[in-house]
Amino acid sequence: MKDPGDPATGFAQRVEAMTLARAQSGDMQAFAALYACFGRPCFNLALRILGNRAQAEDLVQEVFLKLFGAIRGYRGDAPFGSWLKRMTVNAIIDQLRSQRHAADADAMEANMPSSAIGADNPSAVLDTWSLLQRLPMRARAVLVLHEFEGYTHTELAELFGQSESYSKSILARALKRLNQLVSPPSESASCPNQT
Predict the structure, then answer these.
(1) What is the mean pLDDT of residues 123-132?
(2) Is residue 140 part of a domain?
(3) Residue 192 lies in a domain
(4) 46 domain residue, yes or no
(5) CA-angle at 123, arms to 140 and 49, nearest 5°
(6) How far apart are CA 51 and CA 44, in angstroms?
(7) Alpha-carbon distances of 78 from 72, 84, 100, 182, rounded to whole Å
(8) Which residue has the higher pLDDT, 183 or 34?
(9) Exposed (0-12), middle (13-18) or buried (19+): which is 53, by Cβ within 10 Å?
């Protein structure tokens, strides 16, 4: 199994110039080679944010369909993996926007349950994936993109069409919520003060 931090995996993989040129000219084998290299990183990023395997799979298909038409416009100003990652993030943000209900996104954050979760399975509390799933999608997206993918608040503001303070606020609330989930319940709240 490959190490996700290894530059030979993920979006940091190097792509041969010949493979890119062939894909840009419509060569399906070259395009299949790009999918073989980058399909999994796209899926993993989508799954971390969307939290739904079927939605992540659909999103990867959508990204690669868009890539098929857009690859001719790739100029090489940034590494191919970075360019594709940005395309994937944009598709994820579009998906989040389309899933937004009539209720304001901040109302979803306000409805986060405040009780300790996972009491019946303590190991689930410490599982990162399980914790991320307990956040609303928008909060999860901001957290994953900022903390794991290295996006700045300026970039997040541009992606979400909001101010930098918006992403800072969402991130702070998400981190606070995660801290509440992993912190043991305060004994002082349940025990009377003894003197």
Answers:
(1) 65
(2) yes
(3) no
(4) yes
(5) 15
(6) 10
(7) 14, 10, 31, 39
(8) 34
(9) exposed
In three-state secondary structure terms, 10 is helix
Structure tokens at 178: 């995660």
Kindly state whether residues 127 and 154 are assigned to the same domain: yes
Report the half-sphere exposure of 117 (CA within 13 A, side-chain side): 18
* Alpha-carbon span 134 to 78, nearest angstrom: 34
Amino acid at 85: K
Indicate if the pLDDT at residue 110 is higher than 50.
no
Rounded Cα distance between 121 and 124, Å, is: 6
Q: Is 15 exposed, middle or buried (0-12, 13-18, 19+ CB in 10 A)?
A: middle
Tokens of 75: 């100029």
Q: Which residue's entry shows tokens 């739904």?
A: 52
Quick one: which of 17, 88, 78 has its CA closest to 48?
88
Dist. CA 168–CA 157, nearest whole Å: 9
Question: In angstroms, rounded to a whole number, what is the distance separating the alpha carbons of residues 59 and 50?
Answer: 10
Q: How many CA atoms, within 13 angstroms, populate the side-chain half-sphere of residue 169?
A: 10
Structure confidence at residue 33 as a pLDDT band (50, 70, 90): very high
Domain that holds residue 116: 103-184
Higher confidence at residue 108 or residue 68? Answer: 68
Q: Is residue 129 part of a domain?
A: yes
Provide the whole-model pTM.
0.70
